Amino acid sequence: MHPASDRISAAPVQEPAPKWKERKITDSMCDGGGRCNIWAINLPTEQRRPIVLDAASVSYNDITERYSGWRVLAAINWAQEIGHRVTVLAPNNMLVKEPEERGIFANIEAQGILEWLAVPETSNSYSENPDLENHLLARARELDAAIVSERSFSGASSEFHREILQRVIGFCFFRQEIFIPVDPYGRSGPKLREILTMSS
Length: 200
What we know:
Elements: E1 35-36, E2 51-54, H1 55-59, E3 60-61, E4 66-67, H2 69-81, E5 86-91, H3 102-110, E6 114-117, H4 130-143, E7 146-148, H5 161-166, E8 168-169, E9 172-174, E10 177-181, H6 192-195
Protein name: RNase_Zc3h12a domain-containing protein
């Protein structure tokens, strides 16, 4: 567990920042609808798979149609609270229209966990961008990591078939908290605990 003093935090401009609280990890923190409390997975240290965060997907707010840095902070804190190493990948043009969010991302970058990707911009890079998708999947393969993203990766190269079908973790935000499904692929795919567990 990371103490509260080690967490990355910054005050966003557009939306109020969530208040982080230390919580005891228990498997009962999942509701019947498959949404899982952000502290509900606890694996042995040596079995914890690294996590790649798709910053464009995680930070995009469908309601405001803007990128919000605090959403990335929420995802980082989730990954760190359950003890997983996290790498944040973001397209280098993501903040062109969001200058007020640069302070948050500068803070994340200062922690050494943010990587900017030089990829062409699309009108909806938060959901569809083949070049960005291939970069995300390639980095996940390199790190043997899971990917937190809401993308379908329909434009990605077929060489990343395994990562697309076994390593992608969706999410949703509710009352300024990130919720991770215990069954990201539904009944037919791997469960969250399996995705986050390193292969022996």
